[in-house]
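Task 17 of the worksheet. Students: predict the tertiary structure of the chain below and write it out as structure tokens. Keep your answer in the requested format; marks are given for formatting as well as content.
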Amino acid sequence: MNNINLNLYKYFFQVAKYENYTKAAEELMISQPSLSYSIKVLEEQLEIKLFKKEKNHVYLTEAGREIYNKLIPIFEALDEININADLVSGKVTLGLRPAFAEETMPIYMRELNRIYPNLEIDYITGESESLRKMLLNHEIDILIDEVKLDDEVASILAFEDPAIFIAHKANKKDLGEKIIDEKYCQKNSIGIVPMNRFSQKIMEIYPDFKYEHFRNTPLMLLKLEETDNIGIAPKMILKRELQSGEFIELNTNIGLPKAKMYASYIKRLSNKKITAVVDFFKNNDYYVLLESKRSKN
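Model answer:
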């Protein structure tokens, strides 16, 4: 199965474990409507019914029980990984571009702090060239950038920023049913955040579009709530809004570029704490995070 969203299986696992949406939502620290929606999405993906409801309780179907039993050893292994994470300590300094630090890194930071409670994560922002010099001068441990580095520096992975067209759901249901094409984008204002190479690439490919520039994605979302315009934003940043239905993804026949990001570090300086952060990025793609934590039982 391609593009597996591990969060959905984690949510299913907790509901199956407690046979109660309220307790599972409290354990997962998400809202009950979001949890119910996630289970519905997973059922649609698998094309099976996972639970049956009776009064205030939910029970696994036969198919749901089979999946739950298969997941038990997987989540036990994740718990063991999280226990070993307590052994990782010290400080790791990351070098980030400003847009990544402002919009994306706070999400990663919460996950890193949860998985590695004894690891201090710090970061410095700057432009590519200055950050590369800092990495080579050992002022930072890992550089996350859009430029792949060579020499003694190892680029550990490339992950993509899958941007999407979005619109506020209120009074815009018709937008979600049609394809946004070039003519639409030339006539109507397109919200865009101009602080990275991805947005610059879009403007190079489509110079005739009408753009409205915003300093960051939250400001663009506020504007979209007040207008009939649409915008382009990374799917990861909008994960909560898309899941709750606050914003909808629009169909488009316009080809959008993908911004590749590289996380790099100096091979010979690799140690346990740097490897831990490297593995974190390897195991978490850019817009779906695996939020594993030790069971409270």
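Marker's comment: The first helix runs from residue 6 to 18. Residues 285-297 have pLDDT under 50 and may be disordered.
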